[in-house]
C-alpha cells in the first residue's frame, strides 16, 4: 500500500519517466518546499518506493551525483 507521499513521489516519477531528475527538484515538487538539508526524508521515501516497486517492471535508479531516474527494467 502506498502512503500519500509515496503516491505523490511515484506520480512525479511517472510523469518524468526516463528523465534524470535532480534530487532538489524532486523534493520541491513532491514536498512543496525547498529541501534545505532534509535529504533524509527524500532518501527514505525513495527507498520505500523502490521496495514497493519490486517485481513490477520499473525501477528508480540513482544517477550521477544527486539525481534519480524512473524507468522500465529491474535494477
3D architecture notes:
This protein has 75 residues and is α+β, with helices and mostly antiparallel strands. The protein has one domain: Orthogonal Bundle (Arc Repressor Mutant, subunit A). Helix content is 48%, strand content 19%. It has three helices and three strands. It has helices at residues 4-15, 23-31, 39-53, and strands at residues 20-22, 58-62, 67-72. Helix 1 crosses helix 3. The longest helix has 15 residues, at 39-53. It is globular.
Kindly summarize this structure in a few lines.
The chain has 75 residues and is of the alpha+beta class. The protein has helices spanning 4-15, 23-31, 39-53, and strands at residues 20-22, 58-62, 67-72.
Secondary structure elements and their pairing?
Elements: H1 4-15, E1 20-22, H2 23-31, H3 39-53, E2 58-62, E3 67-72
Antiparallel strand pairs: 1-3, 2-3
Helix pairs in contact: 1-2, 1-3
Which structural traits does this protein have?
75 residues, single chain, 3 helices, alpha+beta, three-stranded antiparallel β-sheet, Arc Repressor Mutant, subunit A
Amino acid at each position: 500500500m502506498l502512503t500519500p507521499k509515496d503516491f505523490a513521489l511515484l506520480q512525479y516519477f511517472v510523469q518524468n519517466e526516463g528523465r534524470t531528475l535532480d534530487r532538489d527538484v524532486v523534493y520541491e515538487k513532491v514536498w512543496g518546499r525547498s529541501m534545505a538539508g532534509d535529504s533524509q526524508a527524500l532518501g527514505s521515501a525513495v527507498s520505500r518506493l523502490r521496495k514497493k516497486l519490486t517485481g513490477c517492471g520499473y525501477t528508480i535508479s540513482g544517477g550521477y551525483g544527486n539525481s534519480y531516474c524512473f524507468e522500465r527494467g529491474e535494477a
